[in-house]
Automatic annotation (TrEMBL):
Signal peptide (residue range): none
Keywords: Metal-binding, NAD, Oxidoreductase
Gene3D superfamilies per UniProt: Isopropylmalate Dehydrogenase
Gene symbol of the encoding locus: pdxA
Organism phylogeny: Bacteria, Pseudomonadati, Bacteroidota, Cytophagia, Cytophagales
Protein name: 4-hydroxythreonine-4-phosphate dehydrogenase PdxA
Organism: Adhaeribacter rhizoryzae
Molecular function as annotated in GO: 4-hydroxythreonine-4-phosphate dehydrogenase activity; metal ion binding; NAD binding
The EC number(s) this enzyme carries: 1.1.1.262
Cross-referenced Pfam families: PdxA (PF04166)
Statement: the UniProt record of this protein carries the keyword Metal-binding: yes
Alphabetized InterPro entries for the sequence: PdxA_fam
PANTHER family with a match to the protein in the record: 4-HYDROXYTHREONINE-4-PHOSPHATE DEHYDROGENASE, D-THREONATE 4-PHOSPHATE DEHYDROGENASE
Amino acid sequence: MSNKPIIGITMGDPASIGPEIAIKALLDENIYAICRPLLVGDAAVFNQIIEKLGLKAQINVVSEVQAAQFKFGEPDVLDLQNVNLAQLTFGEISAMAGNASFEAVKKVIDLALAGEIDATVTGPINKKSINEAGHHFAGHTEIYAHYTGTRKYAMLLVEENMKVIHVSTHVSLRQACDLVKQERILEVVDLLHLGMQQLGETNLKIGIAGLNPHAGDSGLFGTEDDAEILPAVQEALRRGYDVEGPVPADTMFAKAATGYYGGVVAMYHDQGHIPFKLSGFKWNAQKKQMDSVKGVNITMGLPIIRTSVDHGTAFEIAGKGVASPDAMVLAIESAVQLARNKVPQPAPVSE
């Protein structure tokens, strides 16, 4: 048992599907076969969802990692006692819920930095709720970067053949174009290559997307592809990476879906997220709900391991018992794999 990594799993927003998918994931006995999972959040919230949905689980409340038993059917919860159930409404944005989800994230970061857990997995949060609570971050990635003192990081999305890293994420589209710079592209190529290795990918060929339609078409539709992306590709080749680009994004992602590339570089948030979610998210038009939501979000460049579900809070179905734990299971499995293949990262940059 002691050889299995300890994985800290946050509850996400307590008004969301986060607590539900976390508990459901730990009802998969295979999770306990590969790791020692520890839920981090408010124990009362987890008890409420277990009772409401009639799930076959009985939580073991602990106040420190060392007290966890890691017994299937009795998930351990490191109780932060920060939710008033009388004020909690499923699907509702609130500062209380935002603060509770933020404190769970901060706690697993602290535990990982202290070496008490081997990796962290995060449930979905609501950015508005977190900001209403006074925590002014654009998302998980920025929270982790801030509290680990990390300057060079990137979002890597993983779902079967699709491994997509981003040059920029939570910025306006206008700003994203300005962030397409040779130095940053080379940074994310380094991070993608490392991530592919840690995930056990054998195909290390990397596709690098163009920014503009047809990758600029020799300057007809913009100059960034020739001025910034092409020099980055040439330098990556010089450094020994197997890269190709700039490739028009519509062509690159069609090839990536077949496994032609081991991983690809997207220039901005939606360029990478849309094809990725088309691959992993399956909508049932008759039931008007998702049949499957697959995809893992990994923050590369951190001194600790962080994976996450790559879907939102799904407030519209919170508390209804229909949320799929698929993405959470995959996020835990990815965290375990990364923990086993962990490569030492640079020390955090002091503020």
